[in-house]
């Protein structure tokens, strides 16, 4: 779906709401109060637009990289905190209809995002298992004075295991015992990595049930996600626009995570339809189209995740496997130099994962806890503290 060229500005958002309210405001005091409120809402829209324009400005080599995904989560956490402050500053409105219903619907969508966070955490753990296999290859072939048949046999076994384990989850998955909740530390990583018949391996994730689907969860978050009507904007003093914005951000961020990271029953068939007067809409639609284009590329169609480092790892290991299959011993100087060059490239990818996966998992954990905290605080404000979480 091509991005629409949005020509609106954050100022137009403020003017639109002010025009809806103008006939209802009669005193100068009320006018000043609303102007301050509108400035707060306008500032929120402007910051959202700036953040997503920054995210969309990256080149194709950085899109969907570990650093870009972390930047996306930083964007979500900042927007979520500003959203929380807006609700806190307008508690009297939050208790009234239809705003109480809209906020409750947002919290229900955010609960669905918690399972996605758990599934993404499982995917990060799966990538770590792949990194361990890469380390076996590096141990066998890197920094070795002589490269013989024994080193190549060990490296080829790890490369084959890696290739099989990176197939789409519908075909096979890496064995990994994982923690059920973000509330506890991972007790122990799987010790069965050398017991492999990967063609028969099934995911043993404890975070979600075997029938759980990331694609269906995304569809549930986006179900009936519609921009507020004029009368709803008036009735909520503009806060309905903020809620719609956060709903859209939540959906896009979760969709992008599912696109990038391996998880159970991935699917990218989520439709984004954003009205022209939302200044952040063009950037989100542009990013949505660019991610979709990545997923349609011939060498990415059956990928278990669109994360840039996964693509680099897959491409590098396939090249190294082909090279290892074709070598004859003793190695010629030219062939040995080619092998060492490939191994160095694989080492750089491994180092990037080593530096990026732990911070990414911490951010996903923080998103999980921030959603829980925001929902609890919001339900307290709505007087629904006994709601079944």
TrEMBL record:
Transmembrane segments: 238-261
Protein localization: Membrane
Record has Lyase as a keyword: no
UniProt membrane topology term: Single-pass membrane protein
GO cellular component annotations of the record: membrane
Alphabetical UniProt keywords: Membrane, Transmembrane, Transmembrane helix
Chief site of localization: membrane
Pfam families: ROH1-like
Taxonomic superkingdom: Eukaryota
Classification via InterPro entries: ROH1-like
Family per record: Belongs to the ROH1 family.
Listed name of the protein: R3H domain-containing protein
